[in-house]
Design brief:
With about 200 residues, the chain is of the alpha/beta class. It has four helices and twelve strands; from the N terminus they run βββββαββββββαβαα. About 35% of the residues are buried.
């Protein structure tokens, strides 16, 4: 359970628009939330706006609406948060619960990252630059999360599922995020903010 905070209620962040996803489960009783995993998503790939992400995370996506959707047909996935291109913030799963975002994953020798992580999706595509508004919202959200959970690392999906995933990708500016947060290098992959490709 998240500690008491005026910005949080039952793992729901008051500054996010709430859209409940059915795709979640309980965290193991002994799991301490210490990891944040950053992802990128756009549906279909490279297309921004619309409600396809919300429909995917709430099991309402019309699989016939676009040829790409056949590749993910039947997927039951979620993340805790989505940050749209304009910086608007959506929340689909309470941070007290286990969202289905990382899949088969491991960080520093510990598997099943969903058990102890918070997943944040940025609307975007690997190797396409993200928007300043998204970095601003991500910074604010990470600071809010760190006030109620003992976060020790912020990594990309590519770091917990190497070879299988590559998001948020080379265009994600880890250096800018680290500067915005002002957090020590040890919070980031490899003990320092990864350099831009």
């Amino acid at each position: 359970m998240s500690p008491a905070s005026p910005d949080w209620a039952g793992g729901w962040y008051c500054k996010a628009a709430r859209i409940d996803s059915p795709n979640f489960g309980p965290r193991p009783a002994d799991s301490e939330v210490s990891l944040v995993v950053i992802h990128s998503i756009s549906l279909p790939p490279g297309v921004y706006g619309g409600d396809a992400i919300e429909r995917l995370f709430t099991n309402r996506l019309d699989w016939s609406a676009h040829p790409y959707f056949q590749q993910i047909r039947g997927a039951e996935v979620s993340a805790h948060f989505v940050i749209r291109r304009d910086g608007s913030l959506l929340q689909f799963v309470s941070t007290d619960d286990r969202a289905w975002h990382a899949g088969k994953s491991s960080w520093q020798g510990r598997g099943n990252c969903n058990d102890y992580s918070i997943g944040i999706e940025l609307e975007g595509l690997e190797d396409h630059p993200f928007e300043p508004a998204q970095y601003g919202q991500l910074t604010a959200l990470l600071n809010a999360i760190a006030k109620v959970y003992p976060i020790t690392h912020v990594v990309g999906h590519e770091h917990v599922a190497p070879g299988r995933k590559r998001d948020p990708g080379a265009a994600f500016d880890w250096v800018a995020l680290a500067k915005n947060l002002g957090w020590p290098d040890r919070y980031f992959p490899g003990g320092q903010p990864p350099r831009r490709a």
